[in-house]
Amino acid sequence: MIFNYKRVSTTEQNTERQLLGVDCDREFVETASGKDTNRIQLQALLGVIREGDLINIHELSRLARNTQDLLNIVNEIVEKGASIKFLKENLSFDGVKKDDAFQKLMLTMLGAISTFERDLLLERQREGIALAKKKGKYKGRPSRFSSEKIEEIRKLFRERNNKAELAKELNISRGYLYQVVK
């Protein structure tokens, strides 16, 4: 089978430019950060591929933004006997080419560039936030709860022993629960 995997990081983005005119039997589309491999559609794709399958990906950064993750995912696909093709970089890997030194070098170098690009973006973001905080213009992301709801949450927080259960009831993480009650 031929699979296409498309990914964007945010809901403001779309996958329209990815894999234009590339036919497939099944498509996996995801809106999630590429910072790690904990992505529903990626894991589903990795779970269904079999020997002889082909996976098309528009470019390396759509699969992973971390060199180690990129190398691990490609290796997992190849070890299953499937092939993976990155169209923009014109790189492909399969069981026959898995030991191709040039292909490995290109994958590692391009993956490192992608990781570097992500790290620079995050560094600029942190610098911008720090500067805005210093000027008193950055207050962080607004709470998703009204002030009345926050008071109600604080009351529940004081009354309950099991904070994880409370967070689950509120459909938020434990970390965010602690931020809300601060």
- Average pLDDT score: 90
Say how many strands there are.
5
Number of helices: 7
Q: What sort of overall outline do the alpha carbons produce when their principal axes are compared?
A: elongated
CATH class identity of the largest domain: Alpha Beta
Query: In CATH terms, what is the architecture of the largest domain?
Result: 3-Layer(aba) Sandwich
- CATH topology label of the largest domain: Rossmann fold
Would you write up a description of this structure?
Strands 2-1-3-4-5 form a 5-stranded mixed beta sheet. Helices cover 49% and strands 13% of the residues. The protein has 182 residues and is α/β, with parallel strands linked by helices. The N and C termini lie far apart (52 Å). It folds into 2 domains: 2-115, Rossmann fold (3-Layer(aba) Sandwich), CATH 3.40.50.1390; 147-181. The model has no long low-confidence stretch (mean pLDDT 90).
Task: Give a brief description.
The chain is built from seven helices and five strands, in the order ββαβααββαααα. With 182 residues, the chain is of the alpha/beta class.
